[in-house]
Amino acid sequence: MLRRPIFEFWYEFASTYSYLAAMRIEQLAEEAGVEVVWRPFLLGPIFQAQGLENSPFNVYPDKGRYMWRDMEREAVRIGLPFYRPKSFPQNSLLAARIAALGTETGWTPIFTKAVYMAEFGEGRDISDREVLVGILDGLGLDPEDIIAEAQSDANKTRLRRLSEEAQSRGIFGAPTFFAEDGEMFWGNDRLEQALDWAVTQAKRSEIPL
């Protein structure tokens, strides 16, 4: 019997396509027999290293117009609500810090999905602290304690290291997936292919429990 292969999901809260991936990855991974590791990070430093001070979807208007229409189509196809935020990209720093903190105790996935639903499913502003307070409270978590710990130096360092790791591993956009052998896949439309690869490689390696 093989152990469940590890599958890394790297995402940025300001990323539209990460919303689509986050809302469907758990079911697909469960069906594939794969264990998902959620990795929040910040794309800003990566874009800056590429000479970009804004999202490529804003820098290149034609690309941006296509993305918004594509998001509408994909949301309908998947069965998700979709609202274009009034500002894009939203400041995702605090949300990312909270998600990074949750990796220690296991509530990162449910928090991540709630943030994405608020942002792209309801059109709310996730840079607003009170929106995040409401999300945490709705999940039965203590907002004040969590936000205070998320803003601690130790947790800021945790998120910074995640973002530095993303850059060092060649991540240039979100969502990005890594199979256990290090194979990288970029984009929501590569999720199924990435999972298939992870399962196939695990079978080939025949790692017993």
Describe the structure.
The chain is an alpha+beta fold. It has one domain (6-205): Glutaredoxin. It is built from eleven helices and four strands; from the N terminus they run E-H-H-E-H-H-H-H-H-H-H-H-E-E-H. A four-stranded mixed β-sheet has the order 2-1-3-4, sandwiched between helices. A hairpin with a 5-residue loop joins strand 3 and strand 4 (184-186). Helix 6 (93-102) crosses helix 10.
Short description:
The chain has helices spanning 16-22, 25-32, 44-49, 56-59, 61-78, 93-102, 108-121, 129-138, 143-150, 153-168, 191-205; strands at residues 6-11, 35-40, 176-178, 184-186. It is of the alpha+beta class and 209 residues long.
Quickly list its features.
209 residues, alpha+beta, Glutaredoxin, 4-stranded mixed β-sheet, 11 helices, 4 strands, 9% strand, globular
